[in-house]
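Quick one: structure for this chain?
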Amino acid sequence: MRLAIDKFKILFFKQQHSILSAATLIMGMIVFSRLLGLVRQRVLAHYFNASELSLFFAAFRLPDTLFEVLVFGTFASAFIPVFTKLLKKEKEDDHGEAWKLAGVITNWGGLLFIILAVLFIALAHPIYKLITPGFGSIEQEKIVEIARILFAAQGFFVVSYVLTAVLESSKRFLIPALAPLFYNLGIIVTTILFAQDLHLMAPTIGVVIGALSHFLVQMPFAYKLGFRFTKSLEITTDVKKIVKLAIPRILEVSFLQVSKFVELTLATLISVPAYTYYMFGNTIQLLPVGLFGTAIAKAALPTLVRKSDDLDEFKKVLYQTLNQIMFLMTPVVAFLMVARVPVVRLIFGTDIFTWDATVQTSLVVSAFAFGIFAQSINAILARSFYALTDTKTPVIVSSATLLVNIVIDYLLVVVYKLPVWSLAAAFSFSSIIQSFALYILMSKRVHNGARSALYLPVLKCLVAGLTSGITMFFILKFFDKSVWIKKVSFISNLNLPFENFVLDTRYAGNLLILTVFVGITGLVIYILILKLLKSKELDVFWRLINRMFTGKTMPDPQTENPTV
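Got it. Here's what it folds into:
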């Protein structure tokens, strides 16, 4: 029993010292969290139709805005770099100043949240009336009722994400990655148990329970490391430094929230259920973004901070991290582009989620998919500026591209009257612009040079991904009975006895078999092509897998990748 407890402690308190190994741990937990997020959306789609869910999702807009401005606008860009450097300076057994800073920041975050939450709650009616013009007064009243409860959940999150930040700064990534599982479970369980009686209030209460669980699961581990609540609101030099670093990022996040308000407003003008299609499509695309963008970026930030005094090493880590993102992301993007309809059907195909809803959501997924690369790259490039204590440059670039996004949103929806997929397309296009701008500016910052170390691996991934995507498209069409019967593809013109080998994808089991087969085949093709092209990223990945399962390190004929 004692041995089991000791192994448990090692598992949860062990530091992850390298970027890819830490990111792999985060990815594993994010897989479970995102999959559970998809289960959450599936449960919601089972109990509520698309029009009802639009009200639920719209209600998040104000609470989410407050949370993201306070939390995402402070911790990744400002608190983590300052806190990490304090930990680095102090002795391992004495983190007094660092942990005192964490307690003070918690107090300031909580105080600001309470003040702003009270203000937003008081103004909820006129705000939602303004940003949801396509909804009726009864629908807007329901949104306000839900939103006022959701503010309680965001209050728990403000404190919980301080704990997330200190754990990640201490290179303990498992628990912060595990916490979202409890958030999703809170929503799922509460919805299943009480949806019939409480209707939309069931998942709303579930959000509050999930947020509380998100906090409670992290608190014991943060306390073990040294976190303590305090009564202090002392404005120290480090607090001032965090505020100075956070202001540009807060402005950036604020601009992003304006963009999200615009998306909600325009979606309500398209139709009542349109916002549900957009949110469901966004949920699907966030799985790879979270896996290969956010996970690697989170894992890379502490290392980039430590390498910030040596630009050559900093550049090496940055480029290798970008290559790893492209290597891991490419087959997933290819799969989503090809199998978007089957994926949507398998995830959201409930009795009340219609075929039109499936088509609209799949179009949103494909519109998001071509910009997934850019979103993931932006996550690491922005953090590379944060590591250099430059939060202004990412803000300027992000704000400019958000304005582009808003303009494109308006043109596509209001001027050209396009469906909801156009909002996702505009977001992807602006993300691509942002990637190019951030990369060019960062290349100048690290004195250019060694760009071939980035370009060649990216080219190899794209070649392998394109080959994989074409193969998956052909297989998906070839073995789908509906393609032959409806003659919706050039494949149906082939004079073959298709009844002998096709699957009737009207049935979920057959659709699942075909989709999994397509995905596995595409992945095998992708790996084989990269093997032929002698991809270093593939070799790095295999060494990591071998280390995870055997505990042995495979020899690397080249210079060892410092991020592994």
